[in-house]
Amino acid sequence: MAKDEDVKLVGSWTSPFVMRPRIALNIKSVHYDFIQETFGSKSPLLLQSNPVHKKIPVLIHAGKPIAESSIIVEYIDEFWSSAPSILPSDPYDRALARFWASVVDQKFFTPMKASMGAEGEAKKGLMNQAVEAIGLLEEAFGTLSRGKAFFGGDHIGFVDIAFGSFLGWIRVAEISNGMKLIDAAKTPGLDGWAQRFSAHDAVKDVLPDTAKLLEFSKLLAAKLKEKH
Amino acid sequence: MAKDEDVKLVGSWTSPFVMRPRIALNIKSVHYDFIQETFGSKSPLLLQSNPVHKKIPVLIHAGKPIAESSIIVEYIDEFWSSAPSILPSDPYDRALARFWASVVDQKFFTPMKASMGAEGEAKKGLMNQAVEAIGLLEEAFGTLSRGKAFFGGDHIGFVDIAFGSFLGWIRVAEISNGMKLIDAAKTPGLDGWAQRFSAHDAVKDVLPDTAKLLEFSKLLAAKLKEKH
C-alpha cells in the first residue's frame, strides 16, 4: 500500500481541533477523505472509531483509528517522517513545542470555550483569562521563533498548528465581543505571525470563512447556554 | 558534560505526577537530585522554573526546565534514547500509548481528584466515573499488553508509568471508601499488572508507603473541602 493511501479524517469544518490534522496532512502532502459529521449528532463511524471520547477529529489510516488532535498530529509527523518536520529534532525543543501546545489547550481554549456559554461578569473574567494566555503566547513566540516567521522557525511547527487552528474562532470572538485579541499594538509578534500563518499554502484553504463561522457560532452559543 | 549529570527534579513524594519522571529516570538509570516542595507553599525555584502553571513536577536538566509530567517522560525517553525505551517505535503504537496515557488523566484522574473534595451522591457519581475509567483501562491492558506483563509489553512503558503512578492513591482510595478499585475478580488483568508494576526495580522505591499516604490524604481532603 502506498504511504498516503486510505487516509480518512472524521471531522467538521468548524472545529479548530479538526484543523490541526488537516494542516498537518497538507504539510506532508498526504491526500485524505474528509468525512464531515453533522452538527448535533454523532455518526456510527465516529462512535465506533472513538468509543472512549466520541469526539472529532479521528484519523483512520489503513483502517486503524487515532483520536485526540495533538496525538494525531504527532502520528502524522512520525508516519510521514520526511521533511518538512512538524516537531523539531532536538529533545529539549520538542519538549518546549509540546509544552506550548498544551498551554494553548489549557490556558487559552478552556476559558475561551467557557466564555461562549457565559454572560456578564463571568464572561468578562473568562475572556480576560484568554487574553492573558495570548499574552503568554506572544512572549513564547519571541523565544521559540528566534526571529523567524513561525513558532517552528522557518516552517510551520507543532505550536503554530495548535494555536493557529484557533485563528478563525479568534476572529469570530473579536467581532462578537467588539475587541481585538491579536493586533499590531498589543501583540505585534502574533499579529504578523497570524497573517503569515493564514496565508500559508497548507492553511489557507482550511481556515474557515469568518462570516460563515460567525453564523455557526451563534448556533453553538445558543446550544451551550441551553446546557447551563 | 556527562549525559546524566546535572539533573534535578522539583516535586513531592505524594504526587503521582512526580512519580512519572522519577520512574522514567530510574528506567534509564539516570541519577537526579530530588528537590521536594513543602505542602501548601511554592518555592522560588518552582515559580521561576514553571511560571506558567506553577506546578510540580519540573525537570531541570543542565539548567533548562521542562514542565508537565507526560512531556517530561517523553523528554527523558528522547534524550536518554538508549534502551529500554518507554514509548514503542512504531508510530501507531506510539499514538495508542499517548492516547491511553491521556485517558488516564482525563477519565480517571479528573473524577478521582474531584471525588476527594466531594460528599454523598456527588462523591458516589465521581467514584463511579473513576471505576468506569478503570474498566476501560482493563480492556486496554488486554489489547496493548498482547499477553505480556505490562501495557508496554515485556517492559514498563508510557501507559504503565501514566497509570501506575496512581497505584498509591488507588490503595488510599480503596481504604477510605471501603471498596476495591482493582482486584482479581473485577479487573484480573490490572490486578496482576499492579503487582508486577509495584514490585519492579524502577518503581518499588518510588511508590509511597500506603499508611503515610493515607495520612497525607486526610490533610489534602480537608484542604480541598475548604476550597468548595
TrEMBL record, chains A, B:
GO BP, sorted A to Z: glutathione metabolic process; toxin catabolic process
Source organism per UniProt: Cucurbita moschata
Entry-linked SUPFAM superfamilies: GST C-terminal domain-like, Thioredoxin-like
CDD domains per record: GST_C_Tau, GST_N_Tau
Protein name in the entry: glutathione transferase
Family label: Belongs to the GST superfamily. Tau family.
Keywords associated with the record: Detoxification, Transferase
Domain GST N-terminal residues, every copy: 5-84
Enzyme Commission number(s) from the entry: 2.5.1.18
Any Pfam family the entry gives: GST_N
Entry-linked InterPro entries: Glutathione-S-Trfase_C-like, Glutathione-S-Trfase_C_sf, Glutathione_S-Trfase, Glutathione_S-Trfase_N, GST_C, GST_C_Tau, Omega/Tau-like, Thioredoxin-like_sf
Domain GST C-terminal intervals: 90-216
Domain of life: Eukaryota
GO cellular component: cytoplasm
A GO MF label: glutathione transferase activity
Catalytic activity as recorded in UniProt: RX + glutathione = an S-substituted glutathione + a halide anion + H(+)
